[in-house]
Every structure is written in C-alpha cells, then in structure tokens.
Amino acid sequence: MRERLLHGGAFWAWRVGAALAQRLPPWISYPAAVAGGEIAYVLWIRRRRIAKANFSVVLDRPTHDREVARVARRSFRNFAKYVVEIMRFPRLELEDLQRIVTVDPRSLAHVRAAREHGRGLIFVSMHFGNFEIGGARIADEMPLNVIGDELENQRLMDLLVSNRAHKNVKLVPPEGAIRQVLRALRRNEMVGLMMDLGPRAHELDNVEATFFGERTKFPTIAANLARVSGAPIVVAAVMRKRDNTFRGVALAPIFVERTKQTAHDVQRTTQTIVHGLEQLVRGDPDQWYIFRPMWSRPEGARS
C-alpha cells in the first residue's frame, strides 16, 4: 500500500511538474531549474560526494579542490535543466527539435557514412548534455531503439515510454533486448546504448578499460552487437550551449575487425569507444550527470 501511494505521488508530481514546465517561459523555468539544482547539490549529500569523487578523477585533482566542487555543482544545475526539458519533451515538434539541436557538418558526415553500410547503426553515449532530445532529433531520419532500465513505477514508466514513441524512439526493456535490437539493426535502424553505468556494469558482461587514466568496468554490449551484426559504432553526444540550445557531435564510425579472438576484439573495441567518450567529456565535464561511482577506488577519488 505504501509503495502504491509513493508511486502514485511520484506519477502525479511528474504530471504537475510537466504541466508547469510546458507552460512557463524559459526565462522562468531555467532559473527555477538552476535553483532546484543548487538545492539538490546542498541536500543530496551522498550524490554530491559521489559526483565530486568522479570529477576528481576527470579533472585529476583532489576531491576537496575548488574546481572539482564547481564542476560538480554545475553538473547538478545542468541536470535540473535536463529534467525540465524532458518534461517539455512531449510538446516538441520536429521543427522545434531542428531549431534546438544543430549538428555540425563533420558529425553529420560521420553518421551518413555509417548508415551507408546498410547494417544499422549503434550509437553509444553517456548521461551527458541532453541525450533524449538528441536522440529524437536524429530519429527523424532513422528509427532509434534504446535499451534502458525499466522503472519500478510502472505508470510513470508507461508515460515516459509513450512520450518517446511519439518521437520515433522505442525504449527496449532489458529482457529479450538482444534479439530485438539485432532485428532492428537488420532493418537498418539505430540502436542507442548508454555506457556510463558505474556499478550496474558489474551485473552485465563487461571488460575493464582505461578512462581518464584509471581502469574501470564498461559493458561490452556495444562491441558484441557490432561484432555479430557488422553494424558500425558511432560515439555521440548532444552538448548544451550557453543559450540552452544544443550541438550534436558524432565521432568517426568504429568498425569492429572480427578475428578468431573474440575477447580481444571486444576489449579493443570497448577501449576505442571509451577513448571517444573521454574526448567528449573532457571539453565540458559539467554536462556529465554522473551521480553513481564510476571508479572502484573509494568513491573513485584521487588523493
């Protein structure tokens, strides 16, 4: 009974918040989001400590360093903006997405070169910038299938899935996901995967890769899918600009060279993916929403 009430409360809180976000002008909603991010940074003590520990590795500074705290604080602010934007998501039309998200010509060329192979396309990214809006922007040209965890709150999950479906984005539950995404790749569609799973990666098939000079675990699903299907991998992100519009960035396609040494193929491909992700984070670390430990050292921190 208590769980049902909590889930119902969360569902209606989201609906009310979304109604406000969709009606308030940006000059009100964004400052409100920043204020909410500041409050979360102060009160969400455990997540603040984890974020600072992660950013200490990214910046190669101790956790008590002022720059680490500044980046962590801005990450909370940017995450709050992202939540507001997801609440607005159902109201966005294709014209809005094209106006909000620009893709530079080089990145567009990378995506088109990958598509020309006709074996689908595997997008890999992180919880960075606004990956939801970016996915919807590119899904207009090619259907996008995203493997994602299901929420315990089924009503809220159904609502979020419905919002994505209207933007040509299909959320694929983990159970039975491999078969579904392989079929999607055979239809020359896109598959989207998140790589920054932290402890969650330990529950999946994983390998260790070097990320910002430290070894940590990453899921191998992208490398395995590419190896089996022949689909190229594109490391991509959608970065927030100062005016709260976005710039889509896609790196050059990664093709898996299939040999008789499966483990070596998967390790090498995953490390190549991770190098690309590091390149994207390094330029704008405060756009990474990493509130779970990414490294296995005590809270990932550097001394």
Quote the average pLDDT.
Answer: 89
> What is the count of helical runs?
11
Shape: globular
- Fraction of residues in helix: 40-55%
Q: What class, by secondary structure content?
A: alpha/beta
Strand numbers in spatial order across the main sheet: 1-9-8-2-5-3-4
Low-confidence stretches are none
Taking the sheet with the most strands, its summary is: 7 strands, mixed
Question: How would you spell out the order of helices and strands?
Answer: HHHHHEHEHEHEHEEEHEEH
CA-CA gap between termini: 46 Å
Q: Taking Cα atoms only, what radius of gyration do you get, to the nearest Å?
A: 19 Å
Per DSSP E runs of 2 or more residues, the count of β-strands stands at: 9
Task: Give an overview of the whole structure.
By secondary structure, the protein is of the alpha/beta class. It folds into 2 domains: 1-91, no CATH class; 92-285, no CATH class. It has 11 helices and 9 strands. The chain has a 7-stranded mixed sheet with strand order 1-9-8-2-5-3-4. Strands 6-7 form a two-stranded antiparallel ribbon. The longest helix is centred in the first third of the chain and has 23 residues, at 66-88.
